[in-house]
Design goal:
7 strands, 45% helix, seven-stranded parallel sheet, 280 residues, Rossmann fold, binds nicotinamide-adenine-dinucleotide, alpha/beta
Length: 280
């Protein structure tokens, strides 16, 4: 058996460097003008990947793309695309393939569905949220998967939420639909495993993005407290007693979509400072 195990140590005993092997890969990161999507795009660009980025607004996604390209030298294609619209998603993937020849890595993402309790949402709102959170991940996957299978290499990573493990009060749309994304991804992972395609999810906890800043300002104003006091309530529930930073989330994302993560599939990993109390 000993001969069949590849040693990481070089014969000289020299310590190997961590090379994620993402140089030259083409990564499509959805909903990437800011927040978690942008942080993942930045990290992948720094690893040497070429990028296809989108968000709904052409001006904002172009600005993000310019900034990432200037900072990293990466080749970046930016396009406006509403991921809840099937035709937009088809056009996005086609444009990416026209420019780069293929999509090796897909990171699905979208804005979060609105907060609220069961009785505050109509059937139309459930349908809109389903298009935004579940169908966007499915359609993006549908468009990139055939090429990945053909080349026998692919990485699909969905940004979900800690709500998958432990529902968050007042977020019934998000709690329900992210569970659906998780069921989809877990099932697909087995279907495509022999093609060298992995499917994983990251569950972000409270992470300091623009959305979280906006949300804390809004909620604080409603309650007549400061945004800092409002955030302090969240921090009390987090063993690390602080919000996460987008780059801490992106570090795991870059690993999971890399060559180095070739034997990890069908999993959901939290980046939450310990917020989820479950054993597994
Ligand atoms: P954010 O609002 O800061 O960024 C969202 C990005 O998505 C922006 O670039 C926006 O332009 C884009 N976007 C929104 N709707 C889109 C659409 N229909 N089509 C294309 N692009 C669209 O949000 P974030 O904090 O980075 O969160 C990203 C995702 O992760 C959200 O679904 C959020 O609910 C989820 N999440 C975030 C946290 C957190 O603490 N930040 C925690 C758990 C889950």
């Amino acid at each position: 058996m000993s001969g069949s195990v590849t040693s990481l140590l070089k014969p000289s005993g020299e310590k190997p460097k961590m090379d994620l092997g993402s140089k030259g890969k083409v990564a499509l990161v959805a909903a990437a003008s800011r927040g978690l999507g942008r942080a993942v795009a930045e990290e992948l660009a720094a690893e040497g990947a070429a990028l296809v980025l989108c968000s709904r607004n052409a001006e904002t996604i172009n600005k993000t793309a310019r900034e990432i390209a200037e900072a990293t030298g990466a080749d970046v294609l930016a396009l406006p695309c509403d991921v809840s619209k099937t035709d937009d998603v088809i056009g996005l993937v086609q444009s990416g393939i026209e420019k780069f020849g293929r999509i090796d890595i897909l990171v699905t993402n979208a804005g979060g569905p609105p907060a609220g309790k069961f009785e505050s949402f109509s059937q139309d709102q459930w349908e809109a949220a389903t298009r935004l959170t579940l169908f966007s991940a499915i359609e993006l996957t549908r468009q990139v998967l055939p090429g990945m299978k053909e080349r026998r290499w692919g990485r699909i990573l969905n940004i979900t939420s800690i709500a998958v493990k432990q529902p968050v009060d007042n977020l019934i749309l998000s709690n329900s639909l992210r569970a659906a994304v998780t069921g989809f991804a877990r099932t697909l992972a087995n279907e495509v495993a022999t093609f060298g395609v992995t499917v994983n999810n990251i569950m972000p906890g409270y992470t300091r993005t623009e959305r979280v800043e906006e949300l804390s300002r809004m909620m604080a104003e409603k309650e007549g407290i400061t945004p800092e006091d409002f955030i302090a309530r969240w921090e009390k529930e987090i063993p690390m007693r602080r919000l996460g930073e987008p780059r801490e989330f992106a570090a795991l994302a870059a690993f999971l979509v890399s060559e180095r993560a070739s034997y990890i599939t069908g999993t959901s990993i939290p980046v939450d400072g310990g917020w989820i109390r479950a054993l597994m």
